[in-house]
């Protein structure tokens, strides 16, 4: 188990988009370079195989190699892979793979093949915790239909199964309830467009989407927000929000990859069943990204 003074999930951890070649194979070279570039530009680490990394459509070999590529690029201390899977045994194997690759923590969704009850959720986290690597829970009731409410998170934490939670429900009121029920459980901002609200509510980190395209300004926003520098944070938040809100939309992968392309990074295509943005969506993302560039936010 990790000690309280060592919490590698704190700070800005980027849920990395995965660069693909035109034939949709993984470009591991560009991915390694992307991880290094994010850290050079102020991010604290990366989360490979999160929702943004299209892990559901990777082969097991690709998924494992993505983790190994990130570790080789920036060191395992900075890498917190997503280990979500339909079965607890499979998720545990992914946690063991991350551990063996040298990662210091992993991120785990609740069972997401069906609407799991509380006993199943507790059992799932207990099983994956046997891998011996600290777990950050990921609450995404919008996509998984399982809601890790504060009471359930407090139970998971009391059992020693989780150390932090990436909170994506969008309900900022939960931060205060969670702090009462489990003061030692670290709250991580899980959606870019509630960053300021959750930072002010005591978040200790951000599992982030838009730093893939604009690391410097988004990291500056996060640091100002957690430091209580509201003048800086509010101005940046207002400027960036037209982009940040795409992180909570269905097309978040395509939007962030398009922004990456526009700022001169390699975002590139997505794998099916995802499809390219509609023309009006692309125009909106393009306009917001170009406005951010013009404002010096790249």
Automatic annotation (TrEMBL):
The keyword Lyase appears for this protein: yes
Record key words, sorted: Lyase
Entry GO MF terms: 4-hydroxy-tetrahydrodipicolinate synthase activity
SUPFAM superfamilies recorded: Aldolase
Binding positions for pyruvate per the UniProt entry: 207
Active site, per annotation: 138 (proton donor/acceptor), 166 (schiff-base intermediate with substrate)
Pfam family, one: DHDPS
InterPro entries: Aldolase_TIM, DapA-like
Keyword Lyase included in the entry's annotation: yes
Family: Belongs to the DapA family.
Protein name according to UniProt: Dihydrodipicolinate synthase family protein
Organism whose genome encodes this protein: Streptomyces cupreus
